[in-house]
Amino acid sequence: MPIIIKYIMKSMSEKKLRTFLILLAVMLSGALCLTSLSITDSLLAIYVEQMKTSTGTAQVCIRPGENSPSQVISLTPGKALEQQVEYMIPVLSSSGTYDSGKKVVDEVSIMGVALEDYLQMNKLQLISKRSNADFTNNQIIISDQTAKKYQLEIGDALEIRINNIKRKLMIYGITSKVGIFSSEGNRSQILMPYTTLSKYLGTHQKPSSIYIKGKEGVEVSQLLKDFKVAYPKYEVAEPIPIEDIRTMLSMFSTLFMMMTLIVTVMSVFIVYTSFKVIMLEKMPIIGTFRSVGASQKMMKRVLILESSFYGVLGGIASWGLGIIILKVLLSVVAASEGIGGKIDLVITPDYLLGSFLLCIIICLASSILPILKVAKVPVKEIVLGGSNHSVKRKRSKEIRSIILVVFSIVAIKILPESYRITAASICVFLALIGIIGILPTIIKLSSRLTEKLFATLFGNVGVLAVKNIKGNKSILNSMSLITLGVGILLMVNNIGENLAVEVVNAYEKSFAYDVQLSLDNMDTNTVRSLLYEEGVTDAYGCYVSGYYYGKNIELVDYNNVKLASIEGVSGKVHADYLTYGYENEEEKDRILEQLGEGRNIAFSNVLKKRYSLVEGQKIQLKMPEGLRTYEIIGFYDTLMNNGDLVQIGEAYFKQDIGVHNYTTIYLKTSKEPTEVLEALKIKYKDRHLSGATMRQQLQNNKEGNAQIMSILSGFSVLAAIIGVIGIINNLFISFIERKRSIAVLRSVGMNKKQVIQMIFLEALYTGLLGAIAGIGAGWIIMNNMPYVIEGMQLPPIVYFVANGLWVYIGVATLVTIVASISPAFKTSKLNIIEAIKFE
């Protein structure tokens, strides 16, 4: 046994390229698996850490709601619960403007809190501070970023407009970017004494929020319950809605699981074909070991041990690659969301074990068939060279493969909605297996026509090339890898193209405004005053609420699912700015008019399909003002807010949600929208006007989607590269297996040039058929992707794009021909006598 193991270890070290290929294939699958498992938790940690910059260690937060009697809170009710809490800190939040001499006045965020209270719940790292002053009165703390930005130092005075009055403030300290300063972007953050800001805002020492942390042993659920009783008219909740964020982020995990599944199929093929080469090369040595006493059982164990060794090495290496991939992905997402600071990965032992086991399973499952096949070959046949058996392919196998393909297309459409993400993934896997299984049938059906074509173009060498492909498992495996590679690339590129097209279409179909803005106290007078501004031709104030806007509005009859967005509609004018896809003009007018005639509601078609809604159906909503029953009067198309959007009448919106100010204002302009927006920012600086043009919103959305798709494209290209290496590997297998037959052809008159031509024609045929089959695989994957996307609570906007398919065919064919160069020239240099003797 030690001798055998020593030989295998030496063999692995000698065949470095093949060992690298196997490890790379296994490692990529394991890395993607680790990424898929860890991505949701890691993104969640980033968002939670980002939100903790303002909430610190607080476990409960009390804030005014839209139905609260005041925008400030009394501390008196909470004092009765002081024995349960470690701290109960009053905080004021506001904003101001700083005129730095630029064209646009800069906005600043202000937190008012006692310094000793802030240090209890959050971090502060003062780089420098005033030695002769306390943090009282008009003293403030700024970040080193702000100090550099405005060239400020300790003791400098600056004027900040707060509550429409300029206040002269003195810099008490400069801190590094920790705590509330860690997420500071273009908008500077200021820390100010609580009593001072209360005086400036006139809150009479009442806070705008209260942060609470319970004593050790006190459950958060109990704190929430008790403080909800103490503050029934205010919002009492955990500062960070972790489960809601987790649900939103789960789509990343699903996308990568799909990619992992497809790459795993490729890895299985590569490892399988690599072990075929290993077994072919080891046949003489295996025969030697068997002839001197090694049993079949012993050889099986040793070869399985070698396979496991690849799995172990690949599994360990996959951790490193997975961490790199995860870090890159998180950095891209963080950059697109404007999140700064350190990025921590959340990788649990279970995730590491799961990816490691996948690598082991891939190696064992892929190598077991070649190992068992070699182990069963009698010693006599190995020694005498009688190990080649012609195995006739069973027709039942092809029939089963066709059934798998048909099932994968049909099954997803008839299964219940709740199983569709899992079902779609399984159907994709079955479809790929099925397509690979029917490749021999495709070869058989196409060979007659191809033989005639190749005979006309290339003579007998062309006919021979087509005949050689029939029943050649190595070439079939190459074709399978081409099929998988083209299918993956087609899927990723299709999704990318779908997003690029549909995002633009969604904006063009949904929005007819030029500028969207918000400012303090938006009411009808605000809209009226904006109409007199230069460059503004029309303005419309809109009410919006829902989960995306921090308010819980739930569909009671559907497990209290939260609506992402709900609009208050002010008649037909609403469609002049938000032009959703109604069935026709008459239907649009009817719906918009009826929304104002009672508690009527219109749903997007995405929600209609998701919840099987019908017109005339009564539906109960849990709203801030209590339970309300609405009647569904119609539906419309939109992809905004991922299609999670409903409309009700403006009057009922204000009554049932308790909102009195507009959420946003839309403008139409006669001048360049960017110029109009910049002018408004200067004029309404005291009301903290902010906004964006419709073109800016579209560009930001496109850039965010492009970043995610670039990562997926990178994975697909990496998978394709591995596939190319696998193709080369299979062509070498074919070369090893056909040494004798090629030598016989050479001995009866075929010259070197004809041998090379024959191998290139085989590659041409393999590339063409593989690419066509890959397009079929891509079509089936794209056929199932809408159900995956829909199961992720996203609009199913993915579909198969037929443009440019010739590129996939051309590239796949070219890759196969290039990959065949080395085997072709090796074959042409074959020693005829040695090859005929070889077995």
Automatic annotation (TrEMBL):
It is a multi-pass membrane protein. Its main location: membrane. Residues 258-378, 715-832 form the ABC3 transporter permease C-terminal domain. The chain crosses the membrane at residues 255-275, 308-331, 351-372, 399-415, 421-443, 474-492, 708-735, 755-782, 797-821. Residues 19-226 form the MacB-like periplasmic core domain. Keywords: Cell membrane, Membrane, Transmembrane, Transmembrane helix. Coiled coil: none annotated. This is ABC3 transporter permease protein domain-containing protein.
